[in-house]
Amino acid sequence: MPSITIKGISPTLDERLKGIARRHHRSLQNEVIACLERYAEQPPRSKAEMMAEAAQLRDQLPPVDHDIVDRHKRSGRP
């Protein structure tokens, strides 16, 4: 059976995965496999879908006051 080794996982992610595995009554290995299977089953997103999502997120941002931005540009950096 093929296997992989994942290096460089942060302690935070490790604890989160262990917590999820406990809640699902799985070993850490089986939880990671389940996560990978769920991710791999998702259909690929088209460029148009990603652009539409980006536009939605952009619309949620507060408006930019260009006068303030220009003032900061002219003031230089400390």
Mean pLDDT: 93
| Amount of helix | 55-70%
Main beta sheet: none
Provide the succession of SSEs: HHHH
End-to-end gap: 58 Å
Could you tell me the radius of gyration in angstroms?
A: 22 Å
Oligomer: single chain
Number of helices: 4
Q: By helix and strand content, what is the structural category?
A: mainly alpha
Number of strands: 0
Low-confidence stretches: none
Overall domain count: 1
Mass-distribution shape: elongated
Proportion in β-strands? under 5%
What's the topology here?
Layout: H1 11-23, H2 28-41, H3 47-60, H4 66-75
Helix pairs in contact: 1-2
Task: Spell out the key features of this protein.
78 residues, mainly alpha, 65% helix
Write up this protein.
The structure is a single chain. The chain has helices spanning 11-23, 28-41, 47-60, 66-75. The protein starts with 10 loop residues before the first helix and ends with a helix. The chain has one domain. The protein is built from four helices and no strands. By secondary structure, the protein is mainly alpha-helical. The longest helix is centred in the middle third of the chain and has 14 residues, at 28-41. α1 packs across α2. The model has no long low-confidence stretch (mean pLDDT 93).
